[in-house]
Amino acid sequence: MHSFSAYCRLNVTICASNLAVIRAASRKINPKARFDPARRGDRHAYFRAMLNQHDDARALAAWHRL
Prior knowledge:
Number of strands: 0
Number of domains: 1
Radius of gyration: 13 Å
Distance between the termini: 27 Å
Mean pLDDT: 93
Strand content: under 5%
Number of helices: 4
Shape: elongated
Largest sheet: none
Helix content: 55-70%
C-alpha cells in the first residue's frame, strides 16, 4: 500500500487533472523500472494508489471548502 506521503511528494495541487497526477507519478519511478514489462502490474497499482489519494485529497478539500 502506498502512503499519502508518496502522493504529497508528487507536488501536484488538488485541482490538477488525473493525467497530471499520472505524469508526475511516472516521473518519480526509477527509469529502469519504468520500462520493465515485468513490473507493469506494480506500476499500475502505484498509479491507481496515487489516483485514489488524489481523489481523497479532493474530497477532503471539498469537505473543508478550500
